[in-house]
Amino acid sequence: MMRLPYFRFHAPETIAEAARILAGEGPDAMILAGGTDLLPNMKRGQQTPKHLVALRQIQPLRDIRNGSGLSIGAGLSLTALLANESVQQNYTALWQAAKVVATPQLRNMATLGGNICLDTRCNFYNQGEEWRKAINYCLKKDGEICWVATSSKTCLAVSSTDTAPALIALGAKIRLVSADNERVVDLKDFYHDDGINYMGRRADEILGEVILQPASGWKSTYWKLRRRGSFDFPILSVAAAVKLADDGTVEDARIVLGAVASKPVVSTDAAEFLIGKKIIDEVIEETGRIATRVARPVDNTDLAPPWRKKMIPVFMSYALRELRGDNVTALRQRVAHQARN
Question: Pick from 113, 114, 139, 115: which is nearest to 125 by CA?
Answer without folding.
Answer: 139
